[in-house]
């Protein structure tokens, strides 16, 4: 038996989810993976679950007032980035030198290779200025195009391209210093 909510548009689901738990669950299932990827790439996998929970609690609180002027995914990206920025701001009192020592360069045979690389990338992303981190994350992790990123962040298209270019260069340099080979 198919799910009666699976065929509904995002806006229809949002309107129903304000008073229907099943419709809200469908929204969460559709969007939670993307929210988690964005949060994990910004604040690390350890804090990503908390960010996802915070984002969907915010969605639930806002269901009755969501007007649909922007796509739900755009709204969720913005809320996710705001929650990540709040968490990173709280962490800011920790010096970069206090960050855990990175492991030796990975060996493809090691079981934790992918997790190690993800943690290094998350650490590298945290060293970027907020605007660059957002732009790079939205492009590389969320797969948004430059115009979507410009709309979401309120920045000019050229500014978005510049932030991504500078962010990628800084990440490449940081990762090379950390022993990650391209």
Automatic annotation (TrEMBL):
- Which key words tag this protein in UniProt? DNA-binding, Sigma factor, Transcription, Transcription regulation
| Pfam families, sorted | Sigma70_r2 (PF04542), Sigma70_r4_2 (PF08281)
Q: Which organism is it from?
A: Deinococcus xinjiangensis
Q: Which residues form the signal peptide?
A: none
On the tree of life, the source organism's domain of life is: Bacteria
Q: Which family does it belong to?
A: Belongs to the sigma-70 factor family. ECF subfamily.
Q: Which InterPro entries match?
A: RNA_pol_sigma-70-like, RNA_pol_sigma-70_dom, RNA_pol_sigma70_r2, RNA_pol_sigma70_r4_t2, RNA_pol_sigma_r2, RNA_pol_sigma_r3/r4-like, WH-like_DNA-bd_sf
Residue intervals of the RNA polymerase sigma factor 70 region 4 type domain: 118-171
The protein in question is named ECF RNA polymerase sigma factor SigE
Identify the residues that the record assigns to the RNA polymerase sigma-70 region domain, covering every copy.
27-92
């Amino acid at each position: 038996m198919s799910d009666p909510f699976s065929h509904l548009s995002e806006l229809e689901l949002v309107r129903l989810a304000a008073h229907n738990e099943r419709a809200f669950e469908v929204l969460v299932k559709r969007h939670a993976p993307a929210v988690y990827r964005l949060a994990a790439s910004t604040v690390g996998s350890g804090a990503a679950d908390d960010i996802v929970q915070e984002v969907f609690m915010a969605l639930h609180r806002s269901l009755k007032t969501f007007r649909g002027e922007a796509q739900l995914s755009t709204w969720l990206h913005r809320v996710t980035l705001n929650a990540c920025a709040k968490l990173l701001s709280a962490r800011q009192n920790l010096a970069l030198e206090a960050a855990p020592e990175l492991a030796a360069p990975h060996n493809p045979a090691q079981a934790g290779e992918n997790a190690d690389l993800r943690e290094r990338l998350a650490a590298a992303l945290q060293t970027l200025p907020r605007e660059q981190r957002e732009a790079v994350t939205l492009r590389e992790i969320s797969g948004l195009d430059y115009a979507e990123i410009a709309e979401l962040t309120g920045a000019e298209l050229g500014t978005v391209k510049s932030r991504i270019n500078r962010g990628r260069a800084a990440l490449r340099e940081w990762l090379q210093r950390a022993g990650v080979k391209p």
